[in-house]
Amino acid sequence: MKGLLKNNFYAVWSSAKIFAIFMLLLGAFVTLVVSQQLLLFYMLLGITGFSINAVAGMGKDYISKWGKYKLTSPVKRADIVKSYFINELIWLLVGVVFAGIGMGLSWLLHGCPFDRSIDALMMFAVGIGISLFTAAIFFPLFYLGAEERNGAFLVISLLCAVGIVMGIITMINLMFGAGMSNWQIILGTLLMLACALSAFAFSYPVTVTVFKRKEY
Amino acid sequence: MENILELEQVCKAFPKTNFALDQVSFSIPYGSIMGFVGENGAGKTTTIGCILNTISKDSGTVKLFGKEMSDADTDLREKIGVVYDGDNFPSYWTAEQLSRVMGGLYTRWDNALFHKYLEDFRLLPGQRIKNYSRGMTMKLAVAAALSHHPQLLVLDEATSGLDPIMRDDMLDVFLDFVQEEDHSILLSSHITTDLEKIADYITFIHDGRLIMTASRNDLVYNFAVMRCKESQFLELDPGDILAYRKRDFQMDVLVSDGKEAQRKYRGFVVDHVSVDEIMLLLVKGERV
Lengths: 216, 288
Hints:
heterodimer; A: 216 residues; mainly alpha; 7 helices; B: Rossmann fold; four-stranded antiparallel β-sheet; elongated; ATP-binding (chain B); ATP binding (chain B)
């Protein structure tokens, strides 16, 4: 597993480095100016950007024969898939940390950037939800035949993920109505995270099943 | 003699391309090198895919170290080194990064040995693979395949694209590898001169079917080609003919025992035959 994780890290690192520099610069700008919308954009971009970059890195294994070569090494196919899922969670955490620092600094310098401080929770849940749903849809699709078209399938997965998250938000709004209490927001956040994590967890055995049938 | 690898009646069909491996059977004894020869698209890589489980066979058995290998048998894969033709590793890696990844995959990864190979092959550990020449990438792949102390090397066109000097160096490395009596190599190639130099056995495959497996000594010292006219060809015992091919004014006939043929058919020209020519006759020639 260690070797697989290192492999995934190298696949993501070069583009993650550039994205991290961009996020640092954008973060500095966001903390200097007072703009709620810009901060929300920064947070969403941070949370989703790193993890989507990690998902996209998967395709790099198949440009060379490395994807096939790995199957001849002493790892199980399920472990290869597991390593992609772990990699996704690691980079999602990196994105959350970036978003958290940006939001924290802005809060420190200019006060609470949201209408209510509890709204920050929902913001993180939306970002994490989009990332996890994107990965949950993309991973099995990738092995179903999207290796050569993974760019297009990634965009489709992302759009589907955004659609699902919007659907869940609409559902939460319908359930609790306007002017939600703090507890209702926390409940809504938990619901969002539970749905995203369930989809992510369900995607793992599906991806393993698809990958086990794949021939190289 | 015990075999490190045994294939029995392995079948695999690809309905979309209308290609099929048809009952492929051969075995490699411990301590030997098996050359696997066939034209492009003959089924060499598919057979190797079935051996290494990157392709699931439709029927038949493949035994590695006496055992059928499943996805869960990671211990068996520890003992196999693989080199594919072309880019084995991502081009954005350096040899150093490759070593770190391989060290995390193989429990017996030998970093010192890998760096020794890098030095011997004059490869820079910090240079990105994308800046390597084709020969260098193949050398790196061979170094990686050897550095986890495998017992079986599976080389799929590993020497193609290398210049003769580099190929010779590689062949020396392979010969060195089989000095250990429990080590073996399956070397698929269409550069038959390489196989003539190092293989103990050669298996010919054509259109998904195994044509023949023979020892290198048998092929080099016993196999022969008889050159004769059409009228002389009719005098031949069909049992002596492995394959024949009509050329402009003569017939080339492949026989398995040149000396016997010379004794039996006086007045016929009997020539030594190269593995290349044997392949041509088996693939392009006709059978009786």
